[in-house]
Amino acid sequence: MALGDAWQVTQMSYHEKEQQMEIRVTDTPALWRQETCPHCGRQTVRGYDHAPERRWRHLNVCQIQAEIVCALPRGECVECEKIYTVRAPREGRSRGLTQEFEAFVLTLMREMPVKRAGEILGETDQKLWRALFAHVAAAWTDLSWDNVTWVGADEMNRKKGHNYLTVFVDLQAKRVLLAVAGKDASVCERFAEELGKHNGHPRAITQIAIDMSPAYKKGVREHFGNATVVFDKFHVVSQVVQAVDEVRRLEVRADASAREQLTRTRWLWRKNPEAWTAQEETRWEQLQTKPLVTGLAYAMRLQLQQAYAAPTAAQARKRFADWCRWVRTEATGLTSG
Ligand SMILES: [Zn+2]
Question: 266 pLDDT band (50/70/90 cuts)?
């Protein structure tokens, strides 16, 4: 630990009972030649007195927990006559930890749950969370979003029940930008504000991928005038998967022989053929020769997924248009027949 000439270690003592190493640090006269007054910015500070002792957890010494103990000096500015406490040397971003210890804590927390890291270090996990949050907040403030043009927004269920978050992501850099409580149109306003604070601009956003919720659509329309709304593949396909399930339920209710054929096939229709078990595959082979509307609906779903698998955007567009035509024709045939 490099302290510079403004500070010196005056004592190192080992406390057997607590299994702890105490490192006492105190200021030297050189401190006052380097200090600038935080109020007026002038180098006209002299020593006034000392604040009560405080402690900072530091890296272990020979596997023994070590703490820095220091009564921070208070300075008095000759010019503006204000008194202030000098900042502790090597203090981390959260209270009571040195920079070196925080760096070690962060490294550990990347590899394991915070609680486990706390057990290893002999610290409460609250203390470690505080250090983590302080570093995340500092790093997040510095982030630049000036390249962000494609954004994805999606809702997340925070806990059980209706406790929603909307998460905004940068789809090109594949990083999370912001998480906001709620899933109404106001979350878009919050995101637009944050973009401004991070060198981005709402008008720079050209594509926003969202689900089909009217609230998101409204928010995008109001705050991202240049953005094209994109319904992402996941949400589109999941709507179609649900539609197939609905067809199955209707068919089971409407037709006794279909009910028999369709018993316990719910999961078969929800999966892709690659995910079928051997049993489900046999089942499907038996079912595909039957004139089931559910089978037709399932074939439609697979066809739609093929549109996403197209090698070019033009081909995807064509496949999608063909698909819409097909589905419309079949639906008309079914409802009129
Ligand atoms: Zn001053």
Answer: confident
* 97-132 residue pLDDT tens: 999 999 999 999 999 999 999 999 989 989 999 999
Say what the pLDDT of residue 319 is.
Answer: 95
CA of 7 to the centre of ligand 1 (A): 22
| Residues that place a CB less than 5 A from ion ligand 1 | 37, 39-40, 77, 79-80
Determine how β-strand 207-210 pairs with β-strand 175-181: unpaired
Are 117 and 159 contacting, i.e. CB atoms less than 8 angstroms apart?
Answer: no
**Domains delineated in the chain:** 7-137 (no CATH), 150-231 (3.30.420.10), 234-336 (no CATH)
Task: Kindly give the distance from the C-alpha atom of residue 79 to the centroid of ligand 1, in angstroms, as a whole number.
Answer: 5
CA of 27 to the centre of ligand 1 (A): 20
Per-residue pLDDT tens digits for 168-184: 999 999 999 999 999 88
Q: Say how many Å lie between the CA of residue 78 and the centre of ligand 1.
A: 7
Cα 115 to Cα 86: distance, rounded to the nearest angstrom: 33
Angle of helix 313-336 relative to helix 293-308, nearest 10 degrees? Answer: 160
Q: What is the mean pLDDT of the chain?
A: 91
Ligand 1 centroid to Cα of residue 29, in Å, is: 19
